[in-house]
Amino acid sequence: MFGYIIVNKAEMKFKEFDRYHSFYCGICRELKRKYGPWGQISLSYDMTFLAILLTGLYEPRTRRESCKCVCHPFESHEMRGNIYTEYAADMNLLFAYYKCQDDWEDEKKLRKLLFGKILEKKTGKLKEIYAEKMRKINLLMQDFLDAEKSDHADIDTLAGVFGRVMAEMMAVQEDEWAENLRRLGFYLGKFIYICDAYEDVESDIKKGTPNPLKRKFENPDFEEECRMILTMMMSECCKEFEKLPILEDVEILRNILYSGVWCRYEAVREKRMRNQPELSEGGNGEE
Q1: Residue-wise pLDDT tens digits, 130-149
Q2: Which residues are within 8 A (CB) of 109 and not within 5 positions of it... i.e. 6 or more apart?
Q3: Which of 103, 110, 190, 232 falls between 20 and 30 A from 257, CA-CA?
Q4: Helix/strand/coil for 240
Q5: The pTM is what?
Q6: What are the C-alpha distances in Å from 214 to residues 2, 163, 201, 281?
Q7: How many CB atoms lie within 10 A of CB 207?
Q8: Partners of 67 in the beta sheet?
Q9: Which of 114, 82, 83 shows the shortest CA–CA distance to 97?
Q10: 98 closest CA partner among 54, 139, 60
Q11: Which residue, 88, 114, 96, is CA-closest to 20?
């Protein structure tokens, strides 16, 4: 479930993308500092949104540095770091660990099991820092894994549990904005889960792996129904975002929420339409 909370680079100014990437580099630096190379391997763009969102909301003191790294050994690039890039790095590691668990449960991928074991050892530090948050997330993830094993679990139930996980990750502290952040995270999490199920439904049918959309896939209105549900989820997510008093980097955040999160869905949908031309001839919601 990585790779959905991204920017639409084609619709960004160069300076906006450079600033966005500087937060990504800040998270990478924190992962290396706290968890070593294995932490860096877990890095994805998804938690960059979280770091920028919390930075814009709480306006902490932020460090700016120029640095080189393994990925960019010959050219210096800007990096930003603060308490929220550190928090995003912690949540990135935790999210990667749960993703390994999910992949092992679903497909028995040995490399995911081994990587998950490595990350599990790293998460020991997080239990001390985020004791109550970890307790809630662990219980939710166990509910999620148990529900996925059930033949009767529906998409709304599973997406809802995953949404609650994202809600806890978004709410960094208990204050006046915590509930807004939780609701934002809840709907964003539901969107991510449904997008992931939508993308994997054909391969899961072939492999016989769990996917709550399998029963709906042959319905003639499958495409239209999925898009309608996803639109409703992002509508609620964006509604919560617009309530937050964020001024700095707000255009980057809007790029992600209004455009970026749809990029992978649109790519999957277009590929499916090309492979199944009959879907674009009036079936499955295509106009």
Answers
A1: 888 888 988 998 888 788 77
A2: 103
A3: 103
A4: helix
A5: 0.89
A6: 21, 20, 6, 22
A7: 12
A8: 77
A9: 114
A10: 139
A11: 88
d(CA 23, CA 10): 19
- pLDDT in the model for residue 106: 67
């990504």: which residue's tokens?
24
What are the tens digits of pLDDT across the range 63-104? 998 876 666 666 777 899 999 999 999 999 988 888 787 777
Token pair in block for residue 102: 């999910």
pLDDT of 285 reads 41
- Residue that is written with structure tokens 């001390």 in the block: 128
> pLDDT at residue 253 above 90?
yes
Cβ atoms 53, 253 nearer than 8 A: yes
Task: Give tens-digit pLDDT for 163-180.
Answer: 999 999 999 999 999 999
Q: Which residues partner with 81 through β-bridges? A: 63
Three-state secondary structure readout of 139-158: HHHHHHHHHHHCCCCCHHHH
Residue with tokens 């820092």: 129
In angstroms, what CA-CA distances link 203 with 34, 118, 172, 196? Answer: 36, 28, 36, 12
